[in-house]
Amino acid sequence: MSNKLIGEMGLHTKISNIFAARNIITAKDALSMTEFELMELLDVGMKEIRLAITLISEATSPPCQSARSLLERKVENEHLSGHLPTHLKGLDETLCGGIPFGVLTELVGPPGIGKSQFCMKLALSASFPVAYGGLDGRVIYIDVESKFSSRRVIEMGLKSFPEVFHLKGMAQEMAGRILVLRPTSLANFTESIQELKDSILQNQVKLLVIDSMTALLSGENKPGAQRQPQLGWHISFLKSLAEFSRIPIVVTNQVRSQNRDETSQYSFQAKLKDGLQEHTKTYDSHLVAALGINWAHAVTIRLVLEAKSGQRIIKVSKSPMSPPLAFPFHITSAGISLLSDNGTELKGPGINTIHARGHSDMINFHGDCS
């Protein structure tokens, strides 16, 4: 709209010709100058300048839209959106269908809690036939810490979807649709993802998993502040890749110890007393998601996996379509399963704190349960 020609905006012929004579051709040319600069350059009065600026602004500004018209447009473009089912009923209902296309979804939690198990189940779902709730596509699985297990994926398929996986050759076909990459450095990873854009479209890729981004940056042996510019580039690239390809991108994140000064960074974690900030009690885990605040803002969905009082919990701690909810779960040979499809709504510090107590019961089904 900024490149729209002034001569096509319905201005009076006289003033339009004056703009053209001074080489002010587009709306951007005119609106980049102040009223006084235009008055001096065009040698016309302030009244004429303000009238011209008003007409140019109206011609280049997008029309106002109602919430109804935006909703109707969203419905018309529904074919560009969608969700990857997790096959966890309560979680899928909370996320309006599953892991959304076109955005970054993060899984964060302590080691051994089930992040890789979750990712492998998603990879299976994306490669599965549409008739059975899958996306019938290929998956690119960037396995930084060598936790991906084809044997475990096949085991999940046999236990979760026996009517399909017992068909001759189906297990091998599903496993063959998952391309596993194991970058040896951040530079190697960066080179790989830059080559993914064309590959995603050409090969019907329906899911990209990065397990884990934290491990890539940790391997650089640089202080956190020096790693931020690198992380900033990767954030921008992954967000644009998700929007461009219209597929879900799932990235796992690790946890780090929480500094005492960070306990009051959120409004619900501090209170004012006599005009001074007073620290509330420190929570038992002292864990927060790694990668920092810029990364936290970049992800659209954040799912936290934690262990509290001997029970595993998956929390929807960030989502534009639902309140923060928590679901208890366990890990079986079929993968992650919810113990209840009814989520418990979270409030206050429980939304962001991460507990790591009582998870000594982690199990290993031919692959790491991280």
Automatic annotation (TrEMBL):
Residues 80-255 form the RecA family profile domain. Pfam families: HHH_XRCC3_RpoA, Rad51. GO terms for biological process: double-strand break repair via homologous recombination. SMART domains: AAA. The keyword Nucleus applies. Transmembrane segments: none annotated. It is found in: Nucleus. Keywords: ATP-binding, DNA damage, DNA recombination, DNA repair, DNA-binding, Hydrolase, Nucleotide-binding, Nucleus. CDD domains: Rad51B. This is P-loop containing nucleoside triphosphate hydrolase.
